[in-house]
Amino acid sequence: MSIRHEQKEQRRALILQSALDLFIRKGYGETKVADIAKAANMSIGLLFHYFDSKEKLYEELIRIGCERLQMDFSFTNESPLAIFTAAAEDLFDMICTNPSAAKMFVLMENAQHLDSLSEDLKEMLMEADKLIKKSIPLIEKGQLLGEIKQGNAEALAVAFWCSIQGIAQYIALHPETPCPNAMWIISILENREGIEK
Amino acid sequence: MSIRHEQKEQRRALILQSALDLFIRKGYGETKVADIAKAANMSIGLLFHYFDSKEKLYEELIRIGCERLQMDFSFTNESPLAIFTAAAEDLFDMICTNPSAAKMFVLMENAQHLDSLSEDLKEMLMEADKLIKKSIPLIEKGQLLGEIKQGNAEALAVAFWCSIQGIAQYIALHPETPCPNAMWIISILENREGIEK
DNA sequence: CCCTTTATTGAATATATCTTCATTGAAATA
DNA sequence: TATTTCAATGAAGATATATTCAATAAAGGG
């Protein structure tokens, strides 16, 4: 392949990477196109040679995020706690192994609360909130089985998923942080020993 | 006191409240002065009658946040786990009782990563990051005592504080959410039963 | 009741930021 | 090598947003 074509891809990737980092640190509105160009070591004009607008660039990042972070959270016939454990382990592995995955995770969360965003992108982003809602019946099942502790199922779901979200955010902003163990977060849900009735 | 004076205070409070809600939902840069004025049911001009600039308004919010959220996290001579438990319970109580406290919590977190902010405010905000650093020796002490589980102390501190941060963020944006139990988060740190050596 | 002070408005202005464009130079192609 | 195509620049232009201001209405005080 030609030198040009390679460089084109590299440049594009560099812009996306720089923009992602800035967007999650400062937010969309406070990240100036000039900041992104500077971070990517290029002129403002060149940035617009690669992306039509700041908004398109942002949307491209979200699109990439949606592709990569396909949270299956598949309803296998495993026990509820096993499903949450697998999900947590997958996520922690992703977040701690791949710095840009952690950043994507944060971008997607922040994007949810943004007005000026095309409808189809907004729909894609609805997932995160659904995750909590979808977890509630699973938690209730786990409570009946005695593997998940008692308490309001929605509150438990919020505690579980938001803890992961909070940790992902910190790791995204401080990539050198030692990675927490997924099992620590599972202990939020886990019913310890005796089944009290 | 005169009607005017009362109304003045009310207006100011209303602006601050509206701005806080918008800032944490959309971020500083995407929150337009017009949005704030609209949310507070007043003209743009009047908003500037109460605050010199958008930035001053933001800084005022941070100043209020710093006053209210004086995280003592005092080093009493209680056991490490008891100190973390007390801190978590205090925070959860504050977050779940007082919606604007939860929002403040989020604002302060977001503000940290903002450039254009006076130096003295930046210093005030350094606290959150210090919280994790200050927790490390305490966690190590708890590990020696066997009340806190084994593992990298910094990673445990990150897991604990960031979980609280993540939950606070969700509650701030969804105030009707049932409040998680502080003890659920404590179980991130807690060493269950047998001391393995 | 008159005069002073303060609240209130929205259009006009200033400012900041995004986006375009004419131009230059480097790489591909023949 | 000549020619075409694309990368690259930064200043000019367009746009969006913050801020000011002159004018009006309401309240306070004598």
Summarize the structure.
Chain A has 197 residues and is an all-alpha fold. Chain A contains ten helices and no strands.
Helices and strands in order:
The structure is a homodimer of 197-residue chains.
Chain A: H1 3-26, H2 33-39, H3 44-50, H4 54-68, H5 80-97, H6 99-111, H7 119-125, H8 127-145, H9 153-173, H10 182-189
The first copy, chain A, binds a DNA duplex (30 and 30 nucleotides) through residues 2-4, 7-8, 11, 32-34, 42-46, 48-49, 52-54.
What does this 3D model show about the protein?
- The structure is a homodimer of 197-residue chains.
- With 197 residues, chain A is mainly alpha-helical.
- In chain A, 71% of the residues lie in helices and 0% in strands.
- In chain A, helix 1 packs across helix 4 and helix 5 packs parallel to helix 9.
- The model of chain A has no long low-confidence stretch (mean pLDDT 91).
- Chains A and B meet through helix 9 and helix 10 of A and helix 9 and helix 10 of B.
- Chain A binds a DNA duplex (30 and 30 nucleotides) through helix 1 and helix 3.
